[in-house]
Each structure stands twice: as C-alpha cells, then as structure tokens.
Here is the input.
Amino acid sequence: MESFWKWNVIPENFPFFMAGFRLTLTIFVLSWVGCWTFAILFGAMRHSPRSWLRVPAGAVVEVIRGTPGLMFVVWVYFLSQPLIGYALSPFWAAVWALLIHQGAYGAEVVRAGLSSVPRGQVNAGYSTGLNYFQVMASIVLPQALRNMAPAIVNRSVALFKNTSLAFVIGVIELFRAGTIVNGRENASFAVFTFLGAVYFVCCFSLSRLGQRLGQRPGVIEDTTAV
Amino acid sequence: MSRRWFDTPAERRTFLLVWGSIGALLAWYFFFGPRAHYDYNWRWPVVWRYRRFLLWGVGTTLYIFAWSVGFSLVLGVFCGIGRTTTVRWVRAVSTCYVEIFRNIPLLVQMWWAYFGLQQIVNVAVNEPLGLRILIPSTVACILALSLYTGAYMGEVIRSGIRSIPSGQWKAATSTGLSRAQAWRHVILPQALVIVIPPLTSEVLNIVKNSAVAMTIAVTDLMFYSQKIEEETFAGFEAYTAGTLLFLLLTLATVGTIYLVQRMFGLKVRSAA
Here is the structure.
C-alpha cells in the first residue's frame, strides 16, 4: 500500500519539475509585463472621451474577453503562421496569447481605476497648464493605482493560473512536466496533488497580498474566474 | 456617454491619421512585407464540410454548461451563507473551500478529478470489490467546473449578503422568524437580486472555462475544433470557427439572462 500512491515519484523527478516551474515563472513574468502594457494602453483608450479611440478599443477588449483562454492560446499558435508569416515557437505563442487575453481583462481594471478619479481633478490639472501625460503621471495615476492595487494582484493570480494553459501547445512548463511524469510513472494522484499544492502556494500567497491591499472602501475588486 | 463621433475637424484628421497609418502599415505588411509571398492555403469550406462536428461540440458544451451552472449556483449559495454565518466551524470549512479552489488552476483540478480520483476509486472500490468502475470524463469535468466556479460564486454571494443592512436581520428575528426562516424569506431574496450582474459574468465564465474540458477528452466544442484541425490541417480556419461559436454562445447566454431579468422586472446593469 505504501508504494501505491507513489509519493516517491515527486522527489525522484524533482529537477524536472523545477525546470518546468522555472519555465512557468518565465512565462508569467514576460506575459505579466506585456499584459499591463496592453492593459494600460487599451484601458486609457477605453477611458478616453473620444469615441474614435473608445469604440475600437472597446470592441477589441470585448471580443477577447468573450473567448476562452485555452482557445486563445491555441488560436494564436495556429494564427501566427498564416497571418504574420512566422510560425511562433510554442513558448512565444503562449506568452503572446496569455498577454493579450489577460491584457483585455486588465484593460477593464485600468479603465475602472481611471474612472475612479473624478473628472474635475483632471480638468483642474489641465487648467493649471499640465499636458495629458503630466496630468496622468502626477494626478490620476497615483490615486488610480491605489484603488487598482487589489484588482491588479487578482489579475496576476489569474495570469499565474492561466500559464498552465500553455501546456496544450506543447510548452513543457510545470503542468506539462507533471503530465509527462504521470505518463511515465502512472502516479496521477501523487503528481496532480503535488501540482495543485505548488500552484496553491504561489497563488494563495499572492492573493493574500491582494486581500491585505484591499481592505479599504472605494477599491476596485476584480474577482472573475478567468 | 452619447457623443458624436468627432467633435472637431481636427479630431477627424487625427482619427484618419492614426487608424489610417495603422491600417496602411498592416496592409503593407500583408501585401508587400518581407513575408508577403508566404503561401497559406486558405480552405474555409472545411468549416462547412465539418459543420456536424461543430454542432456536436456546441451540444456537449451546452450540456456541461447546464449541469455546471446548476451545481455551482447551489454550491455558491451554501458557500456564501457559510462564509457569513457566526458558526465558526462552518465558516472555517467554507473559507478553506473557497481559498483552495480559487487558487489552483482549473486545468489541475480537472486532471485531478479525472485521473487522481480514478486512482482513489481504484483503491477504495474497484480493488476490494473486484469492480471496474471508470469515472466518465464528462462527470469529472462537470465536477471540477462546478467546484471551481462555485468558489467564485460563493465570494460574489457573500458580498451580496454582506451588503444587506443588519437592521434587516434584527427586524426579521424580532418578528419571531427563526434563523432559517430569516435566511429564506428576508436575507437571501434580497441578496440574490443584488448579485445578479456579477453572477452573470461568472455564468459566462463557465461557458469559457468549459473549453478546458477538451484536455481530458470531453468532446466539447474545443475538442471538435481540434479534431477538424487534425483531419484537415486547416488549423486557423477550424479554431476561428470554434472561437466564433464560443463568442456566439457567450452572447446568447448574455441575451438569455438579460431577457430573464427583464421578465422579472429587475434592473439590468452591464454584464460580461
């Protein structure tokens, strides 16, 4: 009975899991940076009073938000060949797909954050002679960021969980490393419990941080399951 | 905010300049760019030829969706109540449930429910009794999807219950209602109406997250999109059709919920 659950599989394949985890972290960091660049760009566009910026950005964000992340990962991977002419490697396809998919959700967070600062303050900034970027940097963002902080953390948790979707296009990150080990050793209970524990530790500590930031009135909460 | 498209001629000029140059750049890239002569054999007719696959996929996705919505709503209501009661152990159990299921990727949960659970069934039931019970992948998928979404719905419903002023509780108990009666007739009817808009987006997330079921060989829309790709190598066409169908499903869900809300005369706020 002691060998049935095959817990020994975990320490025996530990270096392999670690390599997978490192790749998961790499995907997470790269797409996190890109995700918030995308989010700030599209969030600012959606916040704009000019409809020629607002409407196209809104259309892009809503369409992306209406599609599943898994479908998006696969789609970007296959789309790269016919549309841009280069076949993206699975790794970069995963990074780009996660970046765009979570960026669309992030854009909503940014838009809500920007809207949480009253228009009067923006207009006051303009009337003292500041330009758009100065108003954003010294008046809107310091306040908006404080309100957005918990939502940004929640989005990051979602992004971290979604890095596991990269497994469908063959990136050997933590989850795929787990499935490979499981395929070889046939120890599904041990492997998937271990994977769950690793993801749980990472995401739980992140979301604790988010909860600590979010105990004020007026913050934007974004706890959607994608 | 209802505005005209352009307030000033300068704005129209900026619009044309910005989007025109983006469009021109893209057009240049596709027609004259360094990879313009890359030959991709577009075969859109395969989507129509394999329409049955896509329809079967939509059917399975809807089936999973229906069961998961039911289960996760029930779970979410119980979890929301559990997170707000004063009974300490109930609160602890529901907090554990929420934290565990929200912080593990759905993919891991689904594989755990399909492969890990099978091993438990083997040890606990199959081997002692000499049976060969196999967990169907659809059951594993519905189980994982309901538990995952139930945790999120529990949080939404908890915040709905929290927003009911405590005076309602006091009024309910002072008219002689028991605790269960107060929940059923006073608190929940108000709380559940408040949380309809955020619950709508959770329901939509079920549609989107059900795509993950493909990885444990549930024959859903995503699975059949991949199948078309395998049979014809027209990956871009197949996945585009699948994506559009998913969009259609989410739009149809939003539309249905909107109609239901209108039917009950509730105030409709933005969903999705």
Summary: Chain A touches chain B through 53 residues (CB under 8 Å).
